[in-house]
Amino acid sequence: MAFFVFAAAALPLLQLIPLPPQIWTALPGRDLLEQAALVIGQEQPWRPLSMSPGATVNALSAMVVPITTLLLMALLKPDDHWRVVSVLLGLVVASTFLGLLQFSGGHFNHPFVNDIAGSVSASFANRNHFALFAAIGCLLAPVWGFGEGNQIRWKGPVAIALLLLFALIILATGSRTGMLVGVLGIGLGLLNVRRKVVSELRKLRRPYAIALVAVVIALLAATVILSITLGRAASFNRVVALDVSDDLRRQALPTVWAMTQYYLPFGSGLGTFDPVFRINEPDELLNVVYFNHVHNDWIEIVLDAGLAGLVLLIIAIGWWLWKGTGAWRLDSSKCQLPRLGSAVLLLIFIASATDYPARTPMIMAVVVIAAIWLNRYQSQGAAAYNRPPESSVADASPKEG
C-alpha cells in the first residue's frame, strides 16, 4: 500500500527536476515554451518536464493528505479500524444532513469550497463527489449495523434507515453517475453482511422474517418511486433529459484523447490539464463554461503522467483485483473490512470514469483507508483483524435477550 502512495508522490517530484534545453525541447508539445524564449531574445533555460511547474507543485502538495492518512492508519490497532468505520459513517451522515439543508432551499456559501450556487453538494464542490460519498455511506452502514460480533440490536434498523436516507440524497444531487454507484453501494453493502443478516432473520419465525424483508424492499422502492413522482429526483430527471450532443465533456473528448497521445510517453505534467487544454482547445469548444478537468481521471492521469502513470494504474488495478478476489471468496465473517475496502475502491474507480473524485482531500483519505483495509486480507488467520471484538461491543452497550 505504501508503494502506491509514495510512487504517486514520486511522479510529480520527477517531473519537477530541471532538464537541459537539449532534452526538454525534444519533448512533444514544448514548442510554445521554446518560442517564448526566442521572442524575448534569451537563451533556452533549464526547464522541468512539467508544462506548468506551479500546477505540478500544487499536485505534489496535495499528496500531504494521503501520506498523512497512511501514517496515521499505520499507528492504529486492529480494533481501531472498526472505529474508523463509525467515524467515516458519521462524516457521511453529517454531510448528508448538510445536503438536506441545501435540498430544502437553504442557501449558503462555503468559505473554502468553490461550489455551484443552488446545487446539492454538501461539503463538496461537486455534486458527483457528494453522491459518491453518500454511496460509500451505503457500503459503510450495513457493516456498521450488522458487523460480525455486533450485539447492539438497534444498529441494524438504523443502518437500513441510513440506506434509505443516502438513496434519497443521491437522487436529490442530480448526479447520474451517483445513481449507478448508489445502487452498487446498496447491493454490495448488503452482500457483504448477508450471512449476519440471514443469521438474524433465522431467529424469527419464517412468516415474520419474510414479511420483514418484504417491508424493507417495499419501503426502499416506494421511497425512490415517490421521490421520482414528486419531481424531487434530480438525478433521474437528468438521465431522462440526457442529450449527449450538448455534453461539453463528450464534445471535448476527441481533443483530450488527441492531447493524450500527443504528449506521450512522458505526459504534460501532473496538474497541468487546465493550461495545456487552453493551448490545444479548438475554437468550436470556446465557451463561458470553465473546463478544469477531463472529467475522466483515467484519461487525465495518462495525459499528465504519460506511460509512468499508465503503468502505475495497471499495477493498482491488478493489485485490487488480486486482493479483492481473495477477500470476496473467503467467508464474510473473516473479511468484512477487506470486502468493504474492495467495494469502496470499486465505486471510486467507476466514479472516476466521469469525474475526478479522488482529487478531493476527503476521497483521497478514503482511498488510502479502503486500500489499507483491503491490503490486510489474509487467506488464513484474518479473523482477528476483520472481526470487531465482542468485548468492546459489550462495553459499549448491554446485551439484550
Provide a short characterization of the protein structure.
The protein has helices at residues 2-15, 21-24, 31-39, 53-61, 64-74, 78-103, 127-146, 155-173, 176-192, 194-201, 206-229, 234-240, 248-262, 273-280, 297-329, 336-351, 361-375, 383-386, 390-396.
Describe this protein's structure:
- This protein has one domain (about 60-245, about 290-395).
- The protein has helices spanning about 1-15, 20-25, 30-40, 55-60, 65-75, 80-105, 125-145, 155-175, 175-190, 195-200, 205-230, 235-240, 250-260, 275-280, 295-330, 335-350, 360-375, 385, 390-395.
- Mean pLDDT is about 80; it is low at about 390-400.
- Helix 7 (about 125-145) packs antiparallel against helix 16 and helix 8 packs antiparallel against helix 9.
- The relative contact order is 0.13.
- It is mainly α.
- It is about 65% helix and about 0% strand.
Poorly predicted runs: 390-401
For the biggest sheet, the summary is:
none
Beta-strand percent range: under 5%
Q: Give the % helix.
A: 55-70%
Shape: globular
Give the end-to-end Cα distance, rounded to a whole number of Å.
Answer: 42 Å
InterPro entries: O-antigen_ligase-rel_domated, WaaL-like
Membrane topology: Multi-pass membrane protein
Domain O-antigen ligase-related: 162-314
Main location: membrane
